[in-house]
Specification:
572 residues, Porin, Serine Threonine Protein Phosphatase 5, Tetratricopeptide repeat, 3-stranded antiparallel beta sheet
């Protein structure tokens, strides 16, 4: 386990460097702006619902990243909250909305002889041309803006978008008002709020099951919102209708072929992930509590700055394919950038390449991996690392999962003519981990883990150490967000005195890290910026308590962080 304090104390000899490589900031800003206007992929932030998450033809490799998984995405599938739009026993209907409704809306069942047969005076145009699906659908939606409709032999006008917006409370008060509900669906669709549009149209489809044009309208929205499974269900309803015209049937058949083609598994799938964030730290350099430190058996002042702000950004590209019936192989390349506001000497860029395989052997889920990385430091010598390992897990009942893992890491410093001692901190480390995840209920899960690492440095000047880790985490899949609270303990026992600090004391310390993480879709806060809930916002707080028998490592630090991330399915 790498520690900031350790890095600061045993910092490699500084070398003079010229201007760093061109920053990746422009590229990331371009991708970030593109994400605000793109519907390339719909991710699953906490509190969001998407059938794409539950109907992928394969599972993406987890790369044995249990730490990230438990911090951010543990048990994400439990976020799914299915809406029952019709209860056959009591004819109860539910309306889905961004906020929860404690009461069900009861709609009186319409007798068969009293059902209204409605018909749009002008049929909805052909919804899709297979090569131009989204463009044509948008055109069709615009043409629906003002339509007349026949109800009980009387012609009525569906108000256009220029009229006053319909509120959700109006829908609750008049759930059977056809004109009102059609206008509400239209307005929500134009704003990109597909969940509300689909919910309204599905309810109208149940109230007026014989109307083909409502089904066609619903189908157009489902295709635009990328809900292929629901779209196929509506297609079957349309094709079985006696009122469908030959032209509409031809169009629907084209849509069906296109939707099924989208659902067909691809040999390779390509993804991009972009993130940007910042951290405010009140003790970025692990300054001791009394601002004193040992140096060559003497006590001197600890003059490093404490407060600093760090800005980070990253871009990742992943290629994944299914191998056989129970395996998936992936290749991931990442580049990240870290810049500090005050102490710019600690700025760096990092690059990584990962090869991973997720497979199943009996009841064991196994994930072998290979990782190569490079860290390009602003002032310190560049660092390289090579890591391989394997993680495994198995279920024990419906609620418990046990996990285990082994890793090997070879870390090297870039020794050169200007930094002749950079390789003295080269190290070889071995690590093992065990863990247990428990699902308490659909909202709460827990995880506990333990680990051991043995690191040996090329030149042992007090850097060889054994580390024992223990961690606990509680996760809450709340309807409005994903919340995770964790606590971890690390005991570090060193094998030799560090004469550059204190030759009389063998270092031993313990670090307690508390953290709170909240993940939420940006669209649930600002729908205008993220109407499809594809951008995730992560808020974090971390507090570190370090207790040591050498004052250099006796410190407390707090940090607050915020980050935004978005994923793209590049060949969807």
């Amino acid at each position: 386990m790498k520690r900031k304090s350790k890095k600061k104390q045993f910092k490699k000899k500084r070398i003079e460097k010229g201007s760093k490589k061109t920053s990746i900031v422009p590229l990331l800003l371009f991708i970030g702006l593109l994400s605000l206007f793109s519907e390339t992929m719909r991710t699953i932030p906490a509190g969001a619902i998407s059938e794409n998450f539950f109907n992928m033809p394969y599972e993406l490799p987890k790369l044995n990243s249990t730490l990230v998984e438990k911090k951010y995405l543990n048990n994400t599938s439990l976020i799914n909250q299915k809406i029952n739009y019709q209860n056959s026993k009591n004819n109860t209907f539910l309306i889905e909305e961004n906020f929860s409704i404690d009461k069900e809306l009861i709609v009186a069942k319409v007798p068969e002889d009293k059902k209204q047969k409605i018909q749009l005076k002008a049929p909805i145009p052909r919804i899709v041309d297979v090569p131009k699906v989204e463009e044509t659908i948008k055109v069709a939606a615009e043409k629906i803006s003002t339509k007349t409709i026949i109800v009980d032999g009387e012609e009525k006008l569906i108000p256009g978008s220029s009229d006053k917006n319909i509120t959700y409370m109006q829908i609750l008060l008049k759930p059977n008002d056809l004109e009102l509900n059609l206008k509400y669906a239209q307005q929500q669709g134009k704003m990109g709020n597909y969940k509300q549009t689909i919910s309204t149209l599905e309810r109208l489809n149940m109230l007026y099951p014989d109307n083909v044009e409502i089904k066609l309208y619903l189908l157009s929205v489902l295709v635009q919102a990328d809900s292929p499974n629901k779209a196929l269900t509506v297609i079957e309803e349309i094709k079985s209708s006696e009122d469908i015209t030959p032209e509409d049937l031809e169009t629907v058949n084209e849509i069906e072929e296109d939707v099924k083609a989208r659902l067909a598994p691809k040999l390779w799938n390509y993804y991009a992930d972009v993130s940007i964030g910042g951290t405010q730290n009140n003790n970025v350099n692990s300054v001791t509590k009394n601002r004193l430190q040992d140096s060559s058996d003497s006590v001197i002042a600890f003059n490093s700055p404490m407060y600093d702000r760090t800005y980070t950004q990253s871009l990742g590209l992943t290629a994944s394919r299914k191998v056989g019936e129970a395996s998936a192989f992936s290749i991931n390349a990442t580049v990240s950038d870290s810049r500090q506001n005050a102490e710019t000497s600690d700025d760096f860029e990092s690059y990584g390449l990962t090869f991973a395989l997720d497979t199943t052997v009996g009841n064991q889920a196994l994930s072998p991996y290979l990782i190569a990385s490079k860290t390009d430091n602003q002032d310190d010598a560049d660092a390289f690392s090579f890591m391989y390992g394997i993680g495994g897990s198995f279920a024990a009942g419906e609620r418990s999962t046990f996990s285990y893992g082994y890793s090997y890491m070879d870390s090297k410093g870039n020794r050169n003519t200007t930094d002749t001692t950079a390789d003295e901190t080269n190290s070889i480390s071995h690590g093992v981990t065990i863990g247990h995840d428990f699902l308490l209920n659909e909202l709460i899960s827990t995880s506990v883990g333990a680990g051991y690492t043995d690191a040996d440095v090329k030149v042992d000047a007090g850097n060889d150490a054994e580390t024992y880790d223990l961690n606990f985490r509680m996760n809450f899949n709340l309807p409005w967000a994903y919340l995770s609270v964790g606590d971890s303990l690390s005991w570090n026992d060193y094998k030799r005195e560090d004469t550059s600090i204190n030759s009389n004391v063998l270092r031993s310390d313990v670090t307690n890290t508390l953290d709170v993480i909240l993940v939420k879709a940006v669209g649930e806060i600002l729908p205008i910026l993220d109407p499809n809930n594809t951008i995730s916002m992560t808020l974090g707080f971390e507090k570190v308590f370090s207790e040591a028998n050498i004052k250099n490592y006796d410190y407390i630090s707090d940090s607050f962080s915020i980050s935004f991330s978005k994923s793209f399915h590049l060949n969807k």
